[in-house]
Design a protein that fits this description.
This protein has about 130 residues and is an alpha/beta fold. It has five helices and five strands; from the N terminus they run E-H-E-H-E-H-H-E-E-H. The longest helix is centred in the first third of the chain and has 13 residues.
Length: about 130
């Protein structure tokens, strides 16, 4: 099964470059690009059913049609990767749903989350 990646873009060169590089260098990925400024962007996402979204931070913050809350309501197990030209950091936001029988399940989740926090990506600088 292909990993479906959707890049939500606002006609920025950064987003266009990401789409181009992914399509060229990662043929195992199914890469789609959607304009986050279009009123039907959420409906198009429902048709695509992406596993991962890449979005420029500034575009997501400005979009009246697609908020982070909308995304996680529609896709409860989604991974969102926010990128920006302002900093070399990538923000990874993951959503998931778990069944909870009692308060102990909440405590277990909090303990697991605390010990398994994602670290920094290995530096490629030499």
């Amino acid at each position: 099964m292909l990993n479906k990646i959707t890049v939500l873009m606002s006609q920025s060169l950064l987003a266009q470059g990401i789409v181009s590089r992914l399509r060229r260098t990662a043929p195992a990925l199914e890469v789609e690009a959607l304009d986050i400024e279009q009123p039907d962007v959420c409906e198009k996402l429902l048709l695509i059913q992406p596993r991962t979204l890449i979005v420029e931070t500034e575009a997501l913050a400005k979009s009246p049609y697609c908020t982070i809350d909308d995304l996680f309501r529609q896709f409860p197990n989604l991974t969102v990767i926010e990128v920006t030209l302002e900093t070399p950091r990538i923000q990874l936001i993951q959503s998931g749903q778990l069944e909870s029988r009692d308060f102990g399940d909440l405590l277990s989740l909090l303990e697991r989350t605390d010990t398994n926090a994602p670290g920094a990506l290995p530096s490629t600088a030499g």
